[in-house]
Q: What sequence folds into this?
């Protein structure tokens, strides 16, 4: 089975359109602010896609662009102003940032209630504690894909290859909460194949094209390929060798068209949730 993230993302967006219309009717227009520093081509494409996705569901987007050589204080001032603006519900700083920036310091500057990327340390801490938070968008998208495919995670052995703060670690927290037994591996894990062959659910997010082959996959496993790599010939491929993995796996995500569209869909969902929480706090007061 091919896990079609593009089709599922379209359904999620349709659900969000209804929520956005309801909020707008109640006087709250969900709004996402996007900050882009520099002219990195990939970042510009990502920001353009996110802004287009906002427009598709009725979320207002505001883009703030800064030159690559700008002082961090300029970006901090913009974040502070957006934190204080009640008409802005989500703030996203497109990564990576130029070398004069401390990315952690920038992320921590965003108000917790507006951290729709889910990268703030307190959001990640709340995630591990099972408390209300914004989960990072890619792991949240993976969980929605697994749910739609009716993958039973209770008692399942899940292996994640990749230990980043953006995907690997929060993915582990979400799978643990769902009842899976989780192993967090990475590119330096000894005898990686022996670890991945145990997995009922295998999530790969390391940024190495073709790292995982069909021989490293347990027959009948569900394989989620988070990697997206551009080869010299221009092709986009994942971290899993799709040709050898597909015959072995019970279900697998393609690249492109798998996890990527779900990441943006979950960003929109987090922005709508932020607007809903603001409306609830207004009603409570």
A:
């Amino acid at each position: 089975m091919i896990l079609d993230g593009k089709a599922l993302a379209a359904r999620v967006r349709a659900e969000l359109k209804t929520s956005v219309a309801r909020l707008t009717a109640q006087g709250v227009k969900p709004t996402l602010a996007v900050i882009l520093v520099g002219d990195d081509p990939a970042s510009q494409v990502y920001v353009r896609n996110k802004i287009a996705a906002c427009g598709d569901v009725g979320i207002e987007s505001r883009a703030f662009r800064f030159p690559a050589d700008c002082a961090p204080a300029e970006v901090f001032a913009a974040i502070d102003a957006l934190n204080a603006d009640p008409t802005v519900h989500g703030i996203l700083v497109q990564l990576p940032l130029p070398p004069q920036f401390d990315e952690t310091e920038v992320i921590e500057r965003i108000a917790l209630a507006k951290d729709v990327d889910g990268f703030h340390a307190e959001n990640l801490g709340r995630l591990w504690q099972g408390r209300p938070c914004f989960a990072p968008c890619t792991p949240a998208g993976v969980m929605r894909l697994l749910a739609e495919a009716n993958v039973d995670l209770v008692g399942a052995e899940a292996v994640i290859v990749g230990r980043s703060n953006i995907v690997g670690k929060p993915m582990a927290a979400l799978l643990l909460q769902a009842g899976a037994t989780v192993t967090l591996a990475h590119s330096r894990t000894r005898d990686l194949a022996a670890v991945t062959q145990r997995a009922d659910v295998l999530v790969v997010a390391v940024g190495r094209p073709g790292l995982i082959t069909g021989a490293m996959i347990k027959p009948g496993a569900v394989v989620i390929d988070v990697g997206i790599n551009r080869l010299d010939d221009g092709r986009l491929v994942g971290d899993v060798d799709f040709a050898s993995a597909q015959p072995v796996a019970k279900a697998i995500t393609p690249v492109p068209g798998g996890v990527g569209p779900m990441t943006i869909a979950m960003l929109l969902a987090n922005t709508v949730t932020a607007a809903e929480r603001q409306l609830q706090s207004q009603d409570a007061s």
Summary: The mean pLDDT is 96.
